[in-house]
Amino acid sequence: MPSTIVERYKRILSGAQKRFSPYEFEDMQYRKQKVQLVIRYAIEQVKMWTPEQARREMSIKDVKELKLHLIREYVEPPIEAKAQDVYYLVEYAYPYLPKPSEEQKILWVYEEVLAGIRRHFPPLYFQSVKGEERAKICFDYMCNKLMNIKDLRELPRIFGKTEQAYHYLRKYKLKILVDTLYFSPFDMITDMYPELADPRLWEDG
Q1: DSSP string across 14-56
Q2: How far apart, in whole angstroms, are the C-alpha atoms of residue 192 and residue 133?
Q3: E strand or H helix at 131, and its extent?
Q4: Integer Cα distance of 28 and 46 in angstroms
Q5: Core vs surface per residue 183-196: b (16+ CB within 10 A) or e
Q6: What are the tens digits of pLDDT across the range 35-68?
Q7: pTM higher than 0.90, yes or no?
Q8: What is the pLDDT of residues 103-120, one digit of tens each?
Q9: Cα 70 versus chain centre, distance
Q10: What's the pLDDT score for residue 205?
Q11: Backbone angles phi, psi at 32, to 5 degrees
């Protein structure tokens, strides 16, 4: 039964047992519940944290000290998570915790790329339909917040010249959009903003 997992976890914490049995998490029916029980015990009984405090403060060092690395493989990290991030373990154990919106997560990643906290976007971040949505949110942010473009009709003038377009995309770390998702800056902008697809808007580009 899932409830006995906590007793085995206590033995691991005390050093009486090195790890969980390889068969412990085989049963898919109980796997999530078992993992949640272990994480909750570690947070509430060992660290004496609230779930909110745990999400804010838990580090990779805590995960190792609490032996939670033994169950980490059963919790798939979100695409936004960096190698050292462990906040998603807490969110897995407490699914009711309020989470940031998709747009907030995308802008969090983009702002970390801009700041150099991340060297690049996560692998496959701009693939598939979801990737196109992420690309549009990042590009909108670049135009509105970083370049202060007030009117979409300015985009053909700014991005109509290939060298100039790549200059801005490199400067604001979004050249990857053309490298992986679109054929050209023109293709990217007319796909994101179909109202700008009129060739006449690009004649002076």
Answers
A1: HTS-SS--TTTT--HHHHHHHHHHHHHHIIIIIS---HHHHHH
A2: 9
A3: helix 128-141
A4: 27
A5: eebbebbbbbbeeb
A6: 999 999 999 999 999 999 999 999 999 999 999 9
A7: no
A8: 999 999 999 999 999 999
A9: 22
A10: 47
A11: -60, -45
